[in-house]
Amino acid sequence: MSDTLPHDIAELGDGSLIRLVPRWYCDAGAISIYYPSRTLLPAKSRVFIDWVGDAFKAQRLAERFAGSLA
């Protein structure tokens, strides 16, 4: 992943970076985190899973960049 991704998201949000084809979206599908079991899940893994979920909710990434033509 690019080191500039957080900056790109901000620029898409404030309008300084625009889509060249506004009605076209790439829907890469769902994002999933797979792990073997909830039992004996390492604390590092639980923290990462929670962080990803919180980041998507806080920045409304799923809503802002959904692959729909609406």
TrEMBL record:
UniProt keyword terms in alphabetical order: DNA-binding
Entries under Gene3D superfamilies matching the protein: 3.40.190.290
Cross-referenced SUPFAM superfamilies: Periplasmic binding protein-like II (SSF53850)
GO MF annotations in UniProt: DNA binding
Protein name, as recorded: DNA-binding transcriptional LysR family regulator
